[in-house]
Amino acid sequence: MKKILLVLFTVVFFLYQVPSIVKLSAQTVDLPIICGCPSEINKVYQDRGTGETCVTDFATFKEDPTVNHLWVEDAEITAQGKTDDRARQFIYWVVTNSSIDNHPVLFKIWSTVRNVSYFFVIIVAAIMGVGMIITQRSVFNTNIKVWPTVMKIAAILLFITFSASLVITVIQISDILMKFFIENLGGKDLFNIYFASISQEKNYLDFVGCRDLNIRVQEAYKAEMMMLKLTNISYYVMGGMLILRKVFLWFLLFVSPFLALLMPFVFIRNIGWIWIGVFFQWVFYGPLFALFLGALASIWKAGIPYIFDFSRVGSTQGYIFPTAINILYGGPAQHLAILNNGNYIDTFAEYVITLIMLWAVTFFPWWLLRIFRDYCCEGIIAMKNILMSMYDQQRGTPPTPPGPVPTPTSIGTGLKIPREVEIPIKVKLETVEEIKRAKSEEISRSLNMTATRLTDIAHFETNKQINETMKKNMNYLQNPIQAETITDRQKYMNLRTELYNRALKNDAVAKGILSSISTSRIEQTEKRQEILRSIPRMVPVTHVVSMKVKMTQETVKSITASLAGNANIVNAIAEKTKLQTAQVKTVLSSLNQNIDESPTQIAQKVAEQSGIKKEEVVKIIENLPESVKENKDVVQSVVEYVTQPEKNIEQTVSIPPSISLEDYEQVKKMWKHQYEKGEVPVAENIKTREQWVDQDIVFITNTLNKLLSPNEELRQQGLDDIGYILPIFLINNLKGEELIVYLKAKLEAAKAVQEEKQKEKEIEERLKSKTEEEFVEVATPKEKEKAQEMKMEEKMEIPEGERNTTNNPINTNKPINEENKK
Which H/E stretch holds residue 789? Predict the structure, then answer.
């Protein structure tokens, strides 16, 4: 409906802005054909005493086109009048002429589809026979029951044979109801757009359009043309919807034999129910349309229940909006005349209201039937679940055995369970009775969808099993047909039906679960907007800098305020940036004025206030640390947060009082442990733990920058980026502030792990370089001993003549002992 209204307003704007084809300047080229001024209008001019008058020649009119009124023939008015009558005749024809639903050509097409369906029945029978044989063998039963299958096939053939008669009968009953409402409630009485006292085809042939060339009545001319064009669009849309209804019903007649082929199979049976729902939606559209149209006609005859003042009709006091063309329009039961043509606000408003009511008649029945179809489908599913459950019991399917009940053990007085520990209790959700008895919170907890604290979200994201179970439950709730077994399909259908019924009773938990699995784009958009609206503002730069440099915010402000008044700083920056000193001073002054804003917006606001490009503003601010001599740490921090706010985005996010600081620290601890020891999610661009941590830092930083951006499109992109955890926030109605704080904790944990890894690398590199510097080659003991022996042998070489003397104290045949070595 929002899209339809948007299109409507676009059409209105376009029609209102289109300039007229006949311009006053164009009339000066060829002398126009004079139509003659209506006598009633001339009398109004005389009563007013404004000097206005009707003239009968173009030369007199040109003397003063602001006072003189000249009515001339106009091709555009003529075309518009004929278009109006064409549209009126079209809607009248559509409403009063019925279609021939039992035409031979329709039955010919249906017969072709019927014959094709007969062929497919043979295939269906074969499939059912094979399935029956396999099923009987799997349960070791030789007694094959053939009659149930034969009855199903017979029912399929019977429906295919008489499907056309059934469909045509339903369509004709709806047309009879439609005709009854139209004829008895006066639905044929539409708008009063007449060119004569009687509405007939001759009006189209004889009509000649005229308009007033006075330049003071051109707004009235455009307004009347816009309203007439809107009326034509309304008529064509109404007639188009009625014709579209009948065409859709014919097409559904053609495919009706296939409906019987869908029902025997569980996986495609829902397609048949959807077809039935669409068929009845368009069947009942006609009677509802006729009812509302007839009711509208009755309201018009009795008078629209608004407070109107029609006492000024036809008088000089009621001639506020002038009549500029000879096409008259008005609300229901209005006797149209030159002075009764929507000439003041009451008559004009009545026409606008009737136009809006006509659009409501066109689209409101379709919307109501769409709601009814959704409820009807849910009811059919619930009824089918009950019938399937009864069928399972009749054929002897054993009920699901209850789980083992743990035997209570005696606990000594020395063993105490802390009160802070929450023991999750999961209830059984197998039957309809168990689901109805369970509270919505218990259902959510059993489906692993409950998250009341930030630590619950961290558990969900870090625990692979919980994550996969929760996603599986969401998928099965969204489409129970995806479940692998019949029992699971029935279970999730029962769960969805029960949650739907509870949501109608304003159950917040049920609403949260259904909104997270809803395929409605409007509902999803509303839930996302709720999260975006609750995102907190970023902490001002002065607060972040004061925390970093351990100074008060007033001190930080005074330091930034002194920058613009320091001529040395201004001149130094102007020299470096090649800008004028006045520009630099303006930027620094504006920086001081906006220093209490969020870091992501300061540079843009300074650029807007100073009239200097943002790139040059950033360049000036970046040169501040090199140009100041005092309080460099303060200036450096200010420059860092203003020029590069995205690098330390987590520091600009404060933790609101609604979130426990202990909970926040616990999330940080959990994610730090996950990054250090958890399983690495190996992907195409993630092979190591370091790559995982680095990529998460970049991803979370970009996401926070988008979510905290003033740009609505970037904020929506930020929500899209975290689509993997967004459903858990939607289900539990968590706020945007909790989402931001959770991402802040995760980012700080990743940065802490990254910093520790970098320190470890630095220490390893230092140890490695130190070891290489102190390493010297040292000979091994054996090599050293061998070298000493060789050296002593060279020193103790004996001359040839003295080798055999007894006085030689050294016996060369003996080995050199340790003492000799020494």
Answer: helix 781-795
Q: Which among 222, 243, 234 has a CA at the least distance from the CA of 193? A: 234
Which residues, in sequence order, are CB contacts of 645 under 8 Å at separation 6+?
598, 599, 600, 652, 705
Would strands 68-69 and 210-212 be described as parallel, antiparallel, or unpaired? unpaired
Give the tens place of pLDDT for each residue, 115-147: 888 888 888 788 777 766 665 554 444 455 667
Q: What is the full DSSP assignment across 316-357?
A: STT--S---BS-----TT---BTTBSS-SHHHHHHHHHHHHH
Contact indicator for 228, 327 with CB cutoff of 8 Å: yes
| Amino acid letter for position 675 | Y
Closest CA to 599 of 649, 633, 560: 649
Cα separation values, 82 from 76, 195, 200, 233, 342, Å: 10, 10, 12, 14, 20
Query: 578: which DSSP letter?
Result: T
Nearest CA among 303, 238, 208 for reference residue 92: 238
Collapsing DSSP to helix, strand or coil, 211 comes out as strand
Residues found in the chain: 822
Give me the numbers of helices (H) and strands (E) for the chain, helices first please. 33, 4
Could you tell me which residues are beta bridge partners of residue 53? Answer: 68
Q: Using an 8 Å Cβ cutoff, are 249 and 460 in contact?
A: no
Q: Are 556 and 548 in contact (CB under 8 A)?
A: no
Contacts of 523 (CB under 8 A, 6+ apart): 515
Structure token digits, residue 644 = 């590069």
Terminal C-alpha separation, the chain: 111
Helices (H), 140-217: 147-185, 202-206
Name the pLDDT band for 183 (thresholds 50, 70, 90): confident
Q: Residue ranges of the domains in the chain?
A: 4-99+184-387, 432-519, 541-651, 658-770
Predicted model pTM? 0.47
Cα gap 84→472, rounded to integer Å: 58
Q: Which two tokens stand for residue 8?
A: 């409507």
Distance CA 304, CA 333 (A): 10
Tens-digit pLDDT profile for residues 98-119: 888 888 898 899 899 888 888 8
- Give the 3-state secondary structure percentages of the chain, helix then strand then coil, rounded to 5: 65, 0, 30
C-alpha span between 556 and 548 (Å, rounded): 11
Other beta carbons within 10 Å of 57: 11
pLDDT computed for residue 704 by the predictor: 84
Residue 663: pLDDT above 80?
yes
Contacts of 646 (CB under 8 A, 6+ apart): 600, 701, 702, 705
* pLDDT at site 146: 67
The whole-angstrom separation of Cα 512 and Cα 526 is 12
CA-CA-CA-CA dihedral for 146, 147, 148, 149, to nearest 10: 60
CA-based nearest residue to 101, from 51, 157, 172, 156: 172
* String of DSSP letters for 61-112: HHH-TTTEE-EEE-HHHHHHHHHHHHHHHHHHHHHH----TT-HHHHHHHHH
Q: Are 358 and 243 in contact (CB under 8 A)?
A: no
Angle (deg, nearest 10), helices 614-622 and 567-577? 120
Residues with Cβ < 8 Å from 185, sequence gap 6 or more? 290, 291, 293, 294, 295, 297, 298
Burial of 716 (0-12, 13-18, 19+ CB in 10 A): middle
Kind of pairing between the strands at 210-212 and 71-73: antiparallel
Q: Which residue's structure tokens are 């006509």?
A: 358
Instruction: Judge whether 667 and 745 are in contact, CB under 8 Å.
Output: yes
Q: Does the pLDDT value for residue 476 go beyond 80?
A: yes
Q: Which of 746, 706, 749 is nearest to 725 (CA)?
A: 746
